[in-house]
Amino acid sequence: MEHLTILSVNISEEKGTIKHPVDSIYLTNLGVEHDAHSGPWNRQVSLLGTESIRKFEKETGRKVTPGEFAENITTEGSDRWKMHPLDRFSCGETELEVTQIGKECHGTSCAIFKEVGNCVMPKEGIFCRVIRPGVIRPGDVLEYHPKVFSVRIITLSDRASRGEYDDKSGPRIDELLEEFFILHSSFFTFHYSLIPDDPDQLKALLTQAKQKNTDLVFTTGGTGIGPKDFTPEVDRKSVV
Prior knowledge:
This protein is an alpha+beta fold. It has seven helices and 14 strands. It is elongated.
């Protein structure tokens, strides 16, 4: 498990201004208490690594203090390129979920951009929402938990389930998804089922997937106009 050391925690009372370091921040369900960026939206808490700050300093020749990029949490040890939306950070009871990497640059409304004409937050800032509230202080450690996508693939076929021929559609879905997740450096687990054209078996598997909070379910087969082609109807009723 990877760890990020918190070097500074920062707040600002107005948007478009730099944040100033404080002794601690309290994260509520709306974000950082007393911070201008808190609210019922997806970018409640912002993080920026010193790796990005040092690179900016080298390119511009300007020294940067924590909070100048309007980040709530200044960290060390982060590798932004490994992080994706839905990944999580935890610190004691506090938990954050990554919602966005980078953002649209606000240009002249950004304090540091107005000064030097550049900013790293639009490309390298990490934005999160609060999952579980709590207090965070400098010196604390954030534990990084990459999202592991759980995928269930269900093929319906009387003849394939009897071994009369090989199922090709289910394995092909598996292959394409694996290529996708590897391309995007995401973690995943697959569960594959081959069942007859039986609505009760399909409903049972979909119910199980729902109970286990499966992220993605793919069904293939039983989608024509024959008397046993019921897959779309069972799918639709099972997700309600």
